[in-house]
Amino acid sequence: MLRSVLIGTGSQLPRRAVSNEELAETVDTSDEWIVERTGIRNRYIAGEGETTSSLATDAARKAIESAGIEASSIDLIILATATPDQTFPASATLVQDALGCNGCIAFDVAAVCSGFLYAVGVADAMIRAGSAKRALVIGSETFTRILDWEDRATCVLFGDGAGAILLEGREESGKIPRGILATKLHADGAHSELLYVDGGPSTTQTVGHVRMKGREVFRHAVVNLATVLGEVLADTGLTNADIDWLVPHQANARILEATAKKLGLPREKVVITVDRHANTSAASVPLALDTAIQDGRIKPGDLVMLEAMGGGFTWGASLLRI
User: Fold this and answer.
1) Are 43 and 278 in contact (CB under 8 A)?
2) Global confidence as pTM
3) In 10 A of CB 246, how many CB atoms?
């Protein structure tokens, strides 16, 4: 059966790291307050010359290098982001040009923190349909540029960064073959007022700022994520015990712990980077995945579950064998 097999990963963080202590110099907050409520100790903030497309390009180059392929062999680029360089053209086309693989399919996906999972689902479907052989899937954000720095409930949560993976269509067999085994995606616009940006080209003609009702988002996140993970396992005939690693969206340490507990997964099986990177929206899952592959935790043959939930609400999960 044709499967979308992971052949490379990469990630990129901005140059500037900002600790809670440094943030507390300009925001009415403290390291203790942030850590207790979120588990975050540090984040990276994009500076001059660093954009969503530049971070994405650097992450993509590392993924291409790790895969040992030529950029010209890529025939699909999907960039998940809520913070594109411009309203248009798609930031994916800027990455395409920077990599020198002009002519291939390139477009952006907007599903906020779930964007990378949506992009993975689209790329997998296109590979299995024969529309692409090699797909570069990226999550990249400069989320700090849409924060209200006077709203300590939100501005302490987010950071910037990018992560990328390369998928290749391959014929795979066996009881649990390599590649993406199943993906499930959902959305529910009835809750859009709980997590949103208060601006846009068609409404205010401005970029706007992130607004969030954290308690309500937490409640929906734990239930929705546990449910969609169950759906993916049901699709594959596997169980929680079969999962080697859970790579979740790095929103908040409390959400990660509550989701793992609901699934009956030990903390040791959960990749956690929120303490170092904060919430990087669509970049958080590929950034965490690359981190765990690079440090040797995730190895070839491992079963890895990816999951995320974001504004919209949108949420999803994908199970793959490395």
Assistant:
1) yes
2) 0.97
3) 24
**Active site includes 104?**
no
SS3 state at 281: helix
* 28-57 tens-digit pLDDT: 999 999 999 999 999 999 999 999 999 999
Active site residue 279: yes
Cα distance between residue 31 and residue 116, in whole Å:
30
Identity of the amino acid at 192: S
pLDDT tens sequence across 118-146: 999 999 999 999 999 999 999 999 999 99
Strand-strand pairing, 134-141 and 161-171? antiparallel
All structural domains of the chain, each given as residue ranges with its CATH number in brackets, are 2-171 (3.40.47.10), 179-321 (3.40.47.10)
**3 state DSSP class of 45:** strand
Active-site entry in 113, 155, 252, 277: 113
Total residue count of the chain as it appears in this document? 322
Residue 249 annotated as catalytic: yes
